[in-house]
Specification:
The complex is a heterodimer. Chain A is mainly β. Helices cover 0% and strands 55% of the residues of chain A. In chain B, a hairpin with a 2-residue loop joins strand 7 and strand 8. Chain B has a single domain, classed as Immunoglobulin-like (Sandwich). By secondary structure, chain B is mainly β. The chains are: A mainly beta, B mainly beta. At the A-B interface, strand 5, strand 9 and strand 10 of A face strand 5 and strand 10 of B.
């Protein structure tokens, strides 16, 4: 079946450094991907999305890169702050309005 | 917040008891979803609804039923709870603005 997976379950970075979180997906037909942030005790929060006709998309302090050749996407967070500590996971569009979700990378920002 | 309220937020119950979780939205949104989240798994779709009395099964629907008698409420029922249904349950609506789905803050359900 379709799946997305994250390369590292945990990631620690120094405050102010850039963070890179990776995700691989299996369904080459997926044309839409999303990154979510989830804080403890909260629901997933939308960060940024990208369609398959793009290689890169930038938001506020975040950039998503999509490499369709190797079915890989990444989330880059610039100048990581303590408030960025959370679990991050990717999702890919399956059929209709349904999505498949990765398991997440737990990001810890060290002050 | 987008106006999604899940209740209860926490519940502990015993195996074999019926459990109903409620998702209430104030956005008058047509599409609603129930997911479960477990360690080692991404969010998995249980059931979804495209409107009043219009529901369908997701990836992990066994042991669950849903009802949508009003646009604003989407109920998830475990007819006879089992320990394997211990999980965190999330409700979502979507598409919502520029987001594909917007989530509530979840219900943590423990079945002993």
């Amino acid at each position: 079946g379709e799946s997305v997976g994250l390369h590292l379950p945990t990631l620690s970075v120094q405050e102010g450094d850039n963070s890179i979180i990776n995700c691989a997906y299996s369904n080459s037909a997926s044309d839409y991907f999303i990154w979510y942030k989830q804080e403890s005790g909260k629901g997933p929060q939308f960060i940024i999305d990208i369609r398959s006709n793009m290689d890169k998309r930038q938001g506020q302090r975040v950039t998503v890169l999509l490499n369709k050749t190797v079915k890989h996407l990444s989330l880059q967070i610039a100048a990581t702050q303590p408030g960025d500590s959370a679990v991050y996971f990717c999702a890919g569009k399956a059929t209709g309005n349904q999505f498949y979700f990765g398991t997440g990378t737990s990001l810890t920002v060290i002050p | 917040d987008a106006g999604i309220t899940q209740s209860p937020r926490h519940k502990v119950t015993e195996t074999g008891t019926p459990v109903t979780l409620r998702c209430h939205q104030t956005e008058n949104h047509r599409y609603m979803y129930w997911y479960r989240q477990d360690p080692g798994h991404g969010l998995r779709l249980i059931h979804y609804s495209y409107g009043v009395k219009d529901t369908d099964k997701g990836e992990v629907s066994d042991g669950y039923s849903v009802s949508r008698s009003k646009t604003e409420d989407f109920l998830l029922t475990l007819e006879s709870a089992t320990s394997s249904q211990t999980s965190v349950y999330f409700c979502a609506i979507g598409p919502y603005g520029d987001q594909p789905q917007h989530f509530g803050d979840g219900t943590r359900l423990s079945i002993l």
